[in-house]
Write a structure and sequence with these properties.
CATH architecture: Up-down Bundle
CATH class: Mainly Alpha
Distance between the termini: 47 Å
Mean pLDDT: 80
Helix content: over 70%
Low-confidence stretches: none
CATH topology: Multidrug efflux transporter AcrB transmembrane fold
Order of helices and strands: HHHHHH
CATH superfamily: Multidrug efflux transporter AcrB transmembrane domain
Structural class: mainly alpha
Radius of gyration: 21 Å
Largest sheet: none
């Protein structure tokens, strides 16, 4: 959120307004979605693909890099004209919201790509182990319920 706060003074826009608060809510949604998608992909690689933790984090980060960058870049390119036209009449609501989202997208994208992988590698191992155990147990139950073997 620092990027969102820092973008206000650069464009000489009010830091707190209804429009900038809407921008913060939008930014929170985008950043949260990117983080959840990355962690979900890590867990998929651990449980379904059976990769070790370190390899799952590296592979998951590489796999999610392009979608995260495309999401951020597309939104940023759409907001640039609104931010550049901040002093023009009629942009009193759009410009602060766009500036908050644009500045926050930059910082949240960098944080999603730099901070989440090592945090998951450090603290995600117990969660990943529990998820793998649940996945194995559900596969065993499915094999018993169908009368077949869970192993391929």
């Amino acid at each position: 959120m620092r990027g969102a706060r820092a973008s206000g003074p650069v464009r000489r826009l009010p830091l707190l307004s209804i429009a900038s608060l809407v921008g913060f809510i939008t930014l929170f949604g985008i950043a949260t979605r990117n983080g959840i998608m990355m962690v979900t992909h890590y867990r998929h690689l651990l449980t379904v693909e059976g990769l070790p933790l370190r390899e799952a984090v590296i592979q998951g980060s590489v796999d999610r890099l392009v979608p995260i960058l495309i999401t951020a870049l597309t939104a940023a390119l759409a907001l640039v004209p609104s931010v550049l036209a901040a002093g023009e009449p009629g942009n009193e609501i759009q410009a602060p919201m766009s500036a908050v989202i644009l500045g926050g997208l930059t910082s949240s994208t960098l944080l999603n790509l730099i901070v989440i992988p090592p945090l998951f590698a450090r603290f995600g191992a117990p969660t990943a182990a529990r998820a793998a155990a649940r996945h194995a147990a559900s596969a065993d139950v499915a094999g018993v319920a169908t009368g077949g073997s869970a192993a391929p």
